[in-house]
């Protein structure tokens, strides 16, 4: 059995699930989740809940209560082999962790695992397991049809907690409008007759700051518990300009699986976290994504 500790929002939980799912597949064993971190109150972090249940297989394959994994062991990994059958493997930084592919059964994973390298071998499996469990709303269904009928470009602008929460702003940094200016310029050079679909928690800022004079649709109806529908819609788009957000990373990655990689344009920011290295970015982005910034 592999146990993955869940933390963060939907995009982060998808990274954690994907890494754990790949490790379980390699070891031909099962996968469970430790959700204890999601239930803790932290005034310095955005409140989170279990969100993988929005997907058909990812929510059904796993046992939600994995408290028996003794999640506190990650604080003193050296003791885990003495008091538990579990081996704790803690992510040290944002780069791909050497030795991950050598881990065996009874491993407890602690980290964010934000690299496609952890799960690239089971991409087709994950694409199926991240299909939505519930039907899209009528509004989202209409948008999905529109997206599929044109040369759609998903543009994700995340502000929200990156603006309102000091710790998030310091850690992530807010992408400036100049990033979107440069990214959209490249899109216009590479894509014929694009229709931009803007996904954002601050649509007014987007209307005032995004430099796009062509066809554009602003999407802001999927707030709160319905935000997963935005990710599904992003995954239907043919081209992408992502934010420094795991949410839109997954939108672009799912679109890679749907449309195939040749002929797709994906723009991604050179800055994901403050103070991040080039190696981190190379591990995070698939090779055909273009870095801007």
Structure description:
There is one protein chain. By secondary structure, the chain is of the alpha/beta class. It has two domains: 2-129; 138-292, 3-Layer(aba) Sandwich (Rossmann fold). Helices cover 36% and strands 15% of the residues. The protein has eleven helices and ten strands. It has helices at 10-27, 77-83, 123-129, 138-148, 160-164, 166-172, 177-190, 203-209, 228-236, 246-259, 278-284, and strands at 2-5, 31-34, 87-90, 107-110, 151-157, 194-200, 216-219, 239-241, 266-269, 290-292. Strands 7-6-5-8-9-10 form a six-stranded parallel sheet, with helices on both faces. A four-stranded parallel sheet has the order 2-1-4-3. β1, α1 and β2 form a beta-alpha-beta unit. α4 runs parallel beside α9 and α9 (228-236) packs parallel to α10 (246-259). The longest helix is centred in the N-terminal third of the chain and has 18 residues, at 10-27. The model has no long low-confidence stretch (mean pLDDT 86).
Strand order of the largest sheet: 7-6-5-8-9-10
Ends distance: 42 Å
Main sheet properties: 6 strands, parallel
Strand content: 15-25%
- Unreliable runs: none
Report helical residue fraction. 25-40%
Shape: globular
Subunit arrangement of the protein: single chain
Count the helices. How many? 11
Radius of gyration: 19 Å
Query: What is the third-level CATH name, the topology of the largest domain?
Result: Rossmann fold
* Integer average pLDDT: 86
Number of spatially distinct domains: 2
Secondary-structure content class: alpha/beta
Q: Secondary-structure element order, as H and E?
A: EHEHEEHHEHHHEHEHEHEHE
Number of strands: 10
Q: What top-tier CATH class of the largest domain fits best?
A: Alpha Beta
């Amino acid at each position: 059995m592999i146990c993955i500790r869940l933390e963060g929002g939907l995009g982060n939980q998808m990274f954690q699930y994907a890494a754990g799912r790949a490790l379980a597949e390699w070891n031909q064993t099962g996968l469970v989740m430790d959700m204890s971190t999601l239930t803790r109150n932290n005034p310095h972090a955005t409140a989170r809940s279990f969100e993988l249940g929005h997907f058909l297989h990812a929510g059904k394959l796993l046992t939600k209560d994995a408290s028996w994994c003794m999640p506190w062991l990650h604080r003193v990994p050296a003791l885990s082999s003495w008091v538990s059958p579990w081996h704790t493997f803690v992510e040290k930084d944002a780069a791909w962790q050497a030795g991950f592919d050598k881990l065996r059964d009874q491993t407890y994973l602690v980290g964010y695992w934000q690299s496609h390298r952890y799960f690239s071998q089971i991409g087709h499996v994950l694409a199926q397991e991240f299909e939505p469990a519930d039907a899209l709303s009528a509004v989202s269904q209409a948008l999905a049809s529109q997206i599929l009928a044109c040369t759609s470009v998903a543009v994700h602008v995340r502000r929200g907690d990156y603006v309102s929460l000091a710790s998030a702003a310091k850690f992530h940094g807010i992408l400036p409008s100049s990033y979107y200016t440069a990214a959209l310029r490249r899109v216009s050079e590479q894509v014929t007759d694009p229709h931009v679909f803007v996904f954002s928690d601050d649509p007014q800022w987007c209307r005032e700051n995004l430099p796009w004079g062509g066809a554009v649709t602003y999407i802001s109806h999927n707030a709160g518990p319905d935000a997963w529908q935005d990710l599904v819609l992003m995954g239907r788009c043919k081209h992408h300009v992502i934010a420094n957000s795991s949410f839109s990373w997954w939108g672009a990655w799912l679109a890679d699986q749907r449309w195939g990689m040749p002929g797709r344009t994906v723009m991604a920011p050179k800055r994901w976290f403050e103070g991040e290295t080039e190696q981190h970015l190379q591990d995070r982005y698939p090779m055909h994504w273009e870095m801007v910034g």
